[in-house]
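Lab notes, practical 5.
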Amino acid sequence: MYLFFGIFFLVLLFFFCLNYWRRKKIIKKICCMSTKEKCCLLDELLEPFGFCYVPSQDIFTSRIDAMQREFGYCALYDKAALSFHMVFDCLPVYFNYNGRTWLVELWKGQYGINTGGEIGIYYADRIIPESKWENTIFQCVEDEDMVGLSFNLFRKGMGIADVGGRHWWLTAFSVGRFSNPQDLYMRASVTFPHHEMAEAFAEGLVRSGYCPDDIGICHHTVTFSFARSFVRNGCLRRLHILLAQCANRFWCKIYLSVTRPFCLSLDKILYLYYYLPFIFRKTLRIKKYKKIKRKRR
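Output from the prediction step:
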């Protein structure tokens, strides 16, 4: 019996030493890489997931050629997101323009171990009755229909991200940061190709619950803030959110503990890639629930 425990202890000690040596080797490897090398490697690793790294802000944002573009949008996605521990406020803004129903939607909240925000533009190729908006799968816009999107994301008054550009789905995610949706505040702007389209979008904001005085229109650009959701959750959903956020907070702490040799997300994510590849892949599947492909017409 004592011999068995002795052998068991030696095996544990061997694997502990092996793991310690492996961690030290990975840390040394990352520290020996230049910032440019690390950024290039990380962008290469992120490309299949549809994201790229922004070194100036230590955040991740979506690529124009992201694989998510092959999927449309439906209100069902937001309802299903909680099952994947995505807890966010969403603001869908529907409006009709030029023979189509358009949708601009904003999100802000906790995506697993990521705090982030999003804004995307989608369309249907015909006018959709209001009663069918939530059941319609909207298509991601093509290159010629992309608009100027930008937003600043704040957490309790502190800036997290400042992103912008001509896009169809603009995002910003800070890995390892925990937030409740009500802690986050977005200041967003959308620049449309025509003033009439901007006016139609502003009218959609009013239908969504905004006061006209809270919406700014300058030429083709509409500017507004997104601080709270206009949707009220039932008791069961609030309980589900509470449980999901407890799990998200726990995994954020685990992530920070495992990657504690480093400060920047650039180094932390590369460390996960070398040390725990499965966790690396799990961390970057931010929009996993989008599984319904759009129908090209």
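Observations recorded by the TA: DSSP finds seven helices and twelve strands in the chain. The CA atoms of residues 19 and 50 lie 32 Å apart.
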